[in-house]
Structures are given as C-alpha cells and as structure tokens.
Design brief:
Order of helices and strands: HEEEEEEHEE
Number of strands: 8
Radius of gyration: 21 Å
CATH class: Mainly Beta
Shape: globular
CATH architecture: Sandwich
Oligomer: single chain
Number of helices: 2
Amino acid sequence: MTFLKTIFFSITLSFVFLTTQSLHAQNSTINLTVQNIQKAQGKVVIAVFKGADNFLEDGKAIASKIALVEKIGEISATFPNLPIGDDYSIAVYHDVNGNEKLNTNFFGVPTEPYGFSNNARSKWGAPKYDIARFELNQSPKDMVIQVKKWSKQ
C-alpha cells in the first residue's frame, strides 16, 4: 500500500510540475517576410533583439538568420521558441555584394537596403527602439519588413 501511495504521489507531483512549467514557459514563433528585394543576388541578414539594452548591439541578437537571395520580391524566415510576453525588435539588411556587412559610404550612410520591425524609419541613423519594438503576445506572430535604400527612407 505504501508503494502505491508513493507512485500516485510522484505521478501527481510530476503532473502539477509540468502543468505549472507549461503555463510559465510559453513560447511563440515569429514568421517574418522580408519584402521589396530588388536584386536577385547576395544575402538577407536578419537579427532579432530582446529588450532595449540589446537593440542593434554587436553580438546581442538572440536569434539570427542569413538567407540566400535567389529571386527578387521577398524571402521568409521563421524564429521559433521565443518567450511570449517579452519585447523584441528586428533588424534586416540586404547584403547585395555578399561581404557579410552593411556597406556604407564615406559619410556612414548605408548603401545597401535595410529595414526594421514595424517598418520603423529614420533618415539619420537607426530608429529609436520604441519605434521598432513589439511585444510577442501571440503564437505565431506574422510580421512583414520592407527593406529600402537610405535614399528611400
């Protein structure tokens, strides 16, 4: 009888633990479409940042992807297992020449197309975090970012 009680108690405790964990550890997926790709060459580089302190900081992206561009139009990327309820931002650029950096001119102005979550725009420098931020509060979250050259911002 003691053995059965022990087994029943262990199963009940495990069930309660797993149920509690699933309530607190809900994750979501971001389905991102990058639009306005004008040249069928190079790569699209995507970085997902969590929180204002990490926004656009080197090495602070919590997820990233590089997609080869084979046609004009759009590409899609999926970012699974991101905690629901947190604030995020996304930065994207089309690395047309494939050198794995956002090229700039002599004055530091980007010469390759780029974009941010919420299609946040800023003519002089990156947009403020509050403009590019979004809360991940549903699963999945579908998003669209249009990349544009600086002159079109």
